[in-house]
Design brief:
- The complex is a heterodimer of chains A (about 260) and B (about 400).
- Chain A has about 260 residues and is an alpha/beta fold.
- Chain A is built from eight helices and nine strands.
- In chain A, a hairpin with a 5-residue loop joins strand 8 and strand 9.
- In chain A, helix 2 packs across helix 5.
- Chain A starts with 6 loop residues before the first strand and ends in a 5-residue tail after the last strand.
- Chain B has two domains: about 220 residues, 3-Layer(aba) Sandwich (Peroxisomal Thiolase, Chain A, domain 1); about 150 residues, Thiolase/Chalcone synthase (Peroxisomal Thiolase, Chain A, domain 1).
- In chain B, the strands form two sheets. In chain B, strands 1, 2, 4, 5, 6, 8, 9, 10, 11, 12 and 13 form an eleven-stranded mixed sheet that branches. In chain B, strands 3-7 form a two-stranded parallel ribbon.
- The longest helix of chain B is centred in the N-terminal third of the chain and has 17 residues.
- Classes of the chains: A alpha/beta (about 260), B alpha/beta (about 400).
- The interface between A and B is large, with 60 and 62 residues.
C-alpha cells in the first residue's frame, strides 16, 4: 500500500498577539467557570477548525504540550504547601493539571471515542503529536486527525527559564483530502540532537526555512511555538520547512508544500 | 516496511515494589508476595496510606546505575534507566542497532519529585520529556525520543507509538514503556479525589475501598520481524493487537458501561484477528476503586460474555504504578506466558455482582497462555488495550 498524502485542512490559534475570543458564544457561564483560560482557548480553536472543515468527530485527537497545565499545577502546589494548611488541595486543580486534560476535554465535548493521545516532550511535543497524526493518515488509519498544541504560563513556573515566555493555543485538522486544503504536510521528523539524521531541507531549493530563532522572534518564546509557525505557513500557503534547532535535547523539522497551482 | 509488519518483543526490563529485574518480579508474583507497605522513602504527610515503593533510595539507584552521587536526576529517570538497561541487555541490542532506535516513554509525574525538592524555586525544568532524555542519555544511542502523557495509560500508548514508528520504517527497534516515581503531589492529588484506600487494595472485591499508589518502570524492546531475523535475535512474544479509545465520559470517572474500555479491547482483538475466546488471560487495569472495577467488568462482560477469560489485577502486588502500569503489567503478561502461570488477584474475598470474579488460584497451577490481553486506562478516559501472542 502506498502512503496517502496528508494535508492541513484548517487551523485556528489564540496567542499573545490575539484578542481573547468571546467564549460566551460557545460556553455557558457554568462551563466557563470550570475551565482554565487554556481549556477555553483549546475548545474555541477546536470548534472553529471543525466547523471550517465540516467535521463533527475527528478520527483522532492528538495534543502536544511541553509543560502542560502550569496554572492548575501551581494552584495545587500552593495549596499543598500553604504554611497555615488552610487551603485543602482542590481535586479540580489536580485533575486539570494532568497533561491529557485538554485532549480528554475535547473528546468529552465532541462525544468522540476515537484514538486519543497527548505527548509531552519539551520542544517537540507538538511535533510528536503531528508525527503520530501524520503516520495514521498516511497508513489509512482514519481520514483526518485533530492536532492541538498548547502552552501556558503561571507566575511561579516560568515557561522558558531565563527568557520572556508567551502562551499559545494552536489547533489544526489534518486530512487525507486535498480538496479545500491549505497545504500539504510533506513530512515530520523528530530526532535527538547530535544523532546522525539527514535533515532533508535543502537550503538551495528556494524553499523558505524558518528556524527556532525566527519562530520565537515572530510568535514569542514557548515550547509549542513551531505549531504557531506551522499554522501561519499553512495560512500563507507557502512551501517551507519549520526547523526546530533550538537549545533542546531533541529537535525537529516539519515540511510544508504549497498546493497552489495544483 | 509496511503497515502490516509484525512487531516482536525481544527484551524486557522492569523495576517495581516487587524488586529490580524480571527475576525478582517473577519470584514475588509466583510466591504471592505483595510489595505494598506504608511509605518509608517518600517525604509525605500521608504516611497512613499504603503504597508500592521501590525499596531503594535515590543514592542506591545512582550506585546501581554507576552515576555520580551529585547527579540530581528525577527518580522517574533513575527508575526508568534501570529498567531500560535491563531491557536492552535482555534483547542483546548492539550499539549499532541502538543508534538506529527510538525510546518512547510514558510518564505524567515526570520530575515532580525534583520540583518538590526545590519548591518554591523552579530551577532546571524536570518536565516529562526531560526524564525520557535522561534515560536515553544514560543508555546511549537512540536517535529518536519522545514521551506520551495520557495519565495511567501512558506506557501502553508508548507501545502503540513505538509500533507505528517501526512500521513507518523510521527506526529499527523501539524501547517502549514508561516510568513513574511516587510524589507527594500526586499522592495528595489522588487523595483529594478520595479514591485512595487506607488498606491494601482488593480489586473486584465487594468491599474494595480504593487504590494504593505505586511506582516503578518497565520497558519492552519492540522490533520488526525483519530486524529480529536479520540479527538472529530471539523473540519472546508478538505484540499482535492494540486499541486506543476514549471513554469521553468524565475527566476522572469511567462510564458505567465501560465504553472506552470496550472499544479499546474490541479494536485490539480485531487487529490481532482473533475471536474473544482465543484470549486466555486478561491482566485487568483493576485499580480497586469502586468505579473502575465495575466499569471495566461491564466492558469485559460486553465483549467476552459470562465465559470471560481468567482475569486478574496485579495492583495488589505493586500498587497502581500510574503511567508505568501499562508496561509493568505487560511485562507480567509476558512472564506469565513464558512461565505458564497466572498471577493471582491478591486480597480478593467476596464477589460483587457488578464485577467479574477474578482468578485467585495458585501460581503453581499450570496455565498455558497463547494470547494475553493487558488493559491500561487513564483519567480523561484514555483507554488502551494490548494483546500479546506467545511465540
Amino acid at each position: 500500500m502506498t502512503a496517502k498524502k496528508v494535508y492541513i485542512r484548517a487551523v485556528c490559534f489564540v496567542d499573545a498577539a490575539s484578542c481573547e475570543p468571546d467564549y460566551k458564544s460557545i460556553l455557558s457561564i457554568m462551563e466557563a467557570r470550570r475551565m482554565t483560560p487554556m481549556m477555553k482557548r483549546a475548545v474555541w480553536c477546536t470548534e472553529k477548525v471543525l466547523e471550517e472543515a465540516g467535521v463533527k468527530c475527528p478520527d483522532a485527537i492528538l495534543c502536544g504540550t511541553g509543560y502542560g497545565c502550569l496554572l492548575s499545577t501551581e494552584a495545587f502546589f500552593t495549596a499543598l504547601h500553604d504554611p497555615d494548611g488552610g487551603k485543602a488541595p482542590s481535586p479540580t486543580a489536580f485533575m486539570q493539571s494532568t497533561h491529557n486534560t485538554i485532549a480528554s476535554l475535547l473528546a468529552i465535548r465532541l462525544g468522540c471515542h476515537s484514538y486519543n493521545a497527548t505527548y509531552s516532550h519539551s520542544a517537540i511535543s507538538f511535533e510528536s503529536a503531528l508525527l503520530d497524526a501524520f503516520l495514521r493518515i498516511q497508513n489509512g488509519l482514519g481520514d483526518n486527525a485533530l492536532v492541538c498544541a498548547f502552552e501556558e504560563m503561571s507566575p511561579m513556573f516560568r515557561v522558558l527559564p531565563g527568557e520572556d515566555g508567551s502562551e499559545t493555543a494552536v489547533v489544526m485538522l489534518l486530512s487525507s483530502q486535498a480538496d479545500g486544503a491549505l497545504c500539504e504536510l510533506e513530512d515530520v521528523e523528530i530526532f535527538r540532537t547530535g544523532s546522525v539524521v539527514n535533515i532533508d531541507c535543502d537550503r538551495n531549493d528556494g524553499n523558505k526555512i524558518i528556524d527556532w530563532k525566527a519562530c520565537c522572534a515572530e510568535f514569542g518564546s514557548n515550547l509549542s511555538v513551531c505549531a504557531r509557525a506551522v499554522a501561519q505557513a499553512a495560512l500563507d500557503r507557502s512551501s517551507c520547512a519549520i526547523l526546530n534547532d533550538g537549545p533542546f535535547r531533541s529537535n525537529s523539522v516539519i515540511k510544508l508544500k504549497s498546493i497552489c497551482g495544483n | 516496511m509496511s503497515s502490516g509488519t509484525r512487531i516482536f518483543v525481544t527484551g524486557i526490563g522492569i523495576c517495581s515494589a516487587l524488586g529490580l529485574g524480571s527475576e525478582e518480579n517473577l519470584r514475588a508474583l509466583k510466591e504471592g508476595r505483595s510489595g505494598i507497605a506504608f511509605p518509608r522513602l517518600l517525604k509525605t504527610a500521608l504516611t497512613n496510606l499504603p503504597a508500592g515503593e521501590v525499596k531503594f533510595t535515590n543514592d542506591q539507584l545512582r550506585q546501581l546505575l554507576g552515576i555520580d552521587a551529585g547527579c540530581n536526576l528525577p527518580r522517574t529517570s533513575l527508575l526508568g534507566a534501570l529498567a531500560l538497561r535491563e531491557a536492552i541487555s535482555d534483547a542483546g541490542l548492539s550499539a549499532e542497532i541502538l543508534a538506529d532506535s527510538a525510546l518512547i516513554s510514558g510518564t505524567t509525574v515526570g520530575g515532580m519529585d525534583r520540583t518538590e525538592a526545590t519548591f518554591p524555586r523552579f530551577e532546571v525544568p524536570h518536565d516529562c520529556g526531560a526524564t525520557t532524555e535522561d534515560m536515553a542519555d544514560l543508555a546511549g544511542g537512540f536517535k529518536i525520543a519522545t514521551t506520551l502523557s495520557t495519565a495511567c495509560s501512558s506506557a501502553a500508548n508508548a507501545m502503540i507509538t513505538g509500533a507505528a514508528l517501526i512500521r513507518s520504517g523510521r527506526c529499527r527497534a523501539v524501547a517502549a514503556g514508561g516510568s513513574e516515581c511516587l510524589s507527594d503531589y500526586h499522592l495528595h492529588g489522588f487523595n483529594s479525589l478520595m479514591i485512595l484506600s487506607d488498606e491494601p487494595c482488593r480489586p473486584f472485591d465487594a468491599h474494595r475501598k480504593g487504590l494504593n499508589l505505586g511506582e516503578g518502570a518497565a520497558f519492552l524492546i519492540l522490533e520488526s520481524e525483519e530486524s529480529v531475523r536479520e540479527r538472529g535475535g530471539r523473540a519472546i512474544a508478538e505484540l499482535c493487537g492494540w486499541g486506543n479509545a476514549c471513554d469521553a465520559y468524565h475527566q476522572t470517572a469511567s462510564s458505567p458501561e465501560g465504553q472506552g474500555a470496550f472499544l479499546a479491547m474490541k479494536s485490539a482483538l480485531e487487529m490481532a484477528a482473533v475471536p474473544p475466546s482465543a484470549v486466555s488471560y486478561i491482566n485487568a487495569h483493576g485499580t480497586s476503586t469502586p468505579n473502575n472495577d465495575a466499569s471495566e467488568s461491564a466492558a469485559i462482560r460486553r465483549l467476552f460474555g459470562e465465559n470471560y477469560p481468567l482475569v486478574s489485577s496485579t495492583k495488589p502486588f505493586t500498587g497502581h504504578t500510574t503511567s508505568a502500569s501499562g508496561s509493568i503489567e505487560a511485562v507480567y503478561c509476558l512472564l506469565a506466558m513464558q512461565h505458564s502461570f497466572i498471577p493471582t488477584n491478591l486480597n480478593w474475598e467476596e464477589a460483587d455482582s457488578a464485577c467479574i470474579t477474578p482468578f485467585t488460584g495458585k501460581s503453581s497451577e499450570e496455565h498455558s497462555l497463547e494470547y494475553a490481553l493487558c488493559n491500561a486506562f487513564g483519567f480523561g478516559g484514555n483507554d488502551t488495550s494490548l494483546i500479546f501472542k506467545k511465540i
